[in-house]
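Interim report, section 4.2 (structural modelling).
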Amino acid sequence: MSDVSYIQRPNRPLQIYACVFLFVLYVPVLFIPLFSFNDSIYVRFPLQGFTFEWYGQLWARDSLWDALYASVRLGICVAVISTILGVISARAITRYRLPGSSAVVTFIMLPLVIPGIIFGVALLVLMSRMGVPLSLYTVGIGHLIVCLPFAVAVLLPRFEGFDKSMEEASADLGENGWWTFWRVTFPIVWPGVVASLLLTFTISFDEVIMAFFLTGTEPTLPMYIWSQLRFPREFPSVLALSSIILFVSFALVFLALWIGRFGSVSATKELE
Amino acid sequence: MPAKDAIISIQNVDKHFGAFQAIHSVSMDIRHGEFFSLLGPSGCGKTTLLRMLAGFEPASSGEIYIDGAPSADIPPHQRPVNMVFQNYAIFPHLNVRDNIGYGLRKQKLPKAKRNAMIDEMLELVALPGYGDRRAHELSGGQRQRIALARALIVRPKVLLLDEPLGALDKQLREQMQMELRNLQREVGITFVFVTHDQEEALTLSDRIAVMSGGHVLQVDTPSGLYETPNSREVASFIGTMNFFDATVKGRANGHAELDVQALGRVELPVNGADVGPGDRVCVAIRPEKLSLHDEAPACGAPSVAGTLAATAYLGERSHFHIRADGCERPIAVAAQNSAVQTGGEKAEGKSVWLKAPEEALILLGND
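Predicted structure of the assembly:
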């Protein structure tokens, strides 16, 4: 007899399934870093030789650095604004008895399921009707729409998870609403805020569709990559760049998830 | 205007939550330096009333005076009252010292003075050396003390306690009851204490307000509530009580002549009860005021014949249920076991006599 319970017993078919699943999911992605070190401008087997040349070439491209700088600036602004808006909405949703608050939540979350191309076209039409020239600002507005549901989705459980009496206790001890927010509410939801910042930054940094419709003269990094795909000679450099972005995105998302989980684990402990 | 010695004066306060009325025109005064309890079953409005004192819920009508000033427009953070929450609400991101010192920010104290105050509080609640711990490293009783210290350090005029002992196990609870009472005497601050545990309220309080269904039934000292309840509801909520139906036969100089079920003719003081001849009323007596006899007592006190239906031996005392003619419910009797008890004597089915001293009978209006 096995000394572990039925539910804990290893399940061979499921383990195989999990391995196949991860393999199919990530192997295509792994080709990108693989070919970025390949000493040939053609992406095909057999591999020719190992080189850092494509990475080296990246340094010489000013337009790439401009695009990267634009994307980072955009990402930071979008992350900060969408997280601030997310904090405000999450607090309102969890603290006040709003009429139709579930409808409000649904509308906030709707961009998750509405295709980005629809929002992109809609914003493009709106902007041109209003005579607003396309620029990084218009891309930013598009990214806010995409990022806000993620910010709220990350922050809402943090706000739901902590007890209203914490805020009452602070008020009782002489702090007004503003000080209560800074001394009690914000520190308690802080892990959610960090997770939201990292997640929304990553989403904005990688986003193509909104940027495609709304970019002006300054391209974001994904738009720059898109424009380079037309030139076969540039392709290996694009692979090198994509590998770097891939790595940084992975790192940020993992960090966001880890901070989120770490925060909620310590919060549960405290509530016991 | 509130009375002079009242730190809190509640005047004709109502509270509605939508269509539900949680508080029905409550009026009472809470005096300087007293340990005052709000006692009642869950849902009776006692916590709502406490939250109104703290400023978390506005009164729908009526006025609450705190230290002589009407409080309706004073937000919670400006009231001279502090609260110990039911779940203690210890801030999870701060250690014990910062939790206790939370309310001191506005006083802009030098660091040494602040630390000295926190140390003094840790000493007062018997937790010196716990300053660097986090909330999740504390036991229930320790959290409770931190919550007390955190509220007391800002020197409130009134401390509000919302069932602070409810989450503790029995032994710790009894210990904390004693500590709470001593602490209140030491700091001399008015405590308003919410509880559904009548024993706790009787043990701790100077005065108790018994609440039910949003009404205050009676405000009195523990012994006042126990010995002279003003209604059947209060009488049955505090301790055990035997009730006998009675009819008023006549009234003369503050006394009512009654025909009491099973007990016969009795004359009792009315104590302000609004009764007239022909009214159906009720006479009550505590189990320990009845005495049990093997033979018919000589004339004097009203007495009842009956048979022992059940006995329970509880060590220092025994409880008996006696079935008497003319009473549908058995009569409860409690007797001290001051003499050595031997088995058999109080066997079930034995016929006995109950003597009810007239001065222990309480006349209650039938509500």
